[in-house]
Amino acid sequence: MGRKLYVGNLPYSATEQDLLDKFSASGTVDSAKLITDRDTGRSKGFGFVEMASDAEAHAAIDALNGTDYDGRPMTVNEARPQQKRSGGGGDYGGGNRW
């Protein structure tokens, strides 16, 4: 099991400090990152927390998955590796090519 956790279904009012506080009850938190919209800066309602050990990550999942966070049941599970994205670019179509 990995130490990086996906945390979803967060209220938009959640902060990275809130995540640190909640997860530190289960062990040492190495990092907490909320994912935000790049245009508005508003939280997208999910983030990632990295715990210091696999045992602490497992304890955090057991303790926090499904628990209430401002009226929303939090989703906490092991983060999956990031998928490679097929990059945009390419042909813009039509017209003359200088």
Summarize the structure.
The protein is built from two helices and six strands.
What does this structure look like?
The N and C termini lie far apart (54 Å). This protein is globular. It has two helices and six strands; from the N terminus they run E-H-E-E-H-E-E-E. With 98 residues, the chain is of the alpha+beta class. Strand 2 and strand 3 form a beta hairpin. 20% of the residues are buried.
Map the helices and strands:
Blueprint: E1 4-8, H1 16-24, E2 29-36, E3 43-51, H2 54-64, E4 68-69, E5 72-73, E6 75-78
Antiparallel strand pairs: 1-3, 1-6, 2-3, 4-5
Percentage of helical residues?
A: 10-25%
Largest sheet data: 4 strands, antiparallel
Unreliable stretches covering 5 or more consecutive residues: none
Distance between the termini: 54 Å
Give me the CATH fold name: Alpha-Beta Plaits
DSSP summary: helix tally: 2
Total number of domains: 1
Query: Proportion of β residues?
Result: 25-35%
Oligomer: single chain
Biggest sheet: strand arrangement: 2-3-1-6
Mean pLDDT: 89
Shape summary:
globular
* CATH H-tier superfamily: RRM (RNA recognition motif) domain
CATH uppermost class: Alpha Beta
Question: How large, in whole angstroms, is the Cα Rg?
Answer: 18 Å
Element order: H for helix, E for strand: EHEEHEEE
CATH architecture verdict: 2-Layer Sandwich
Number of DSSP-assigned strands: 6
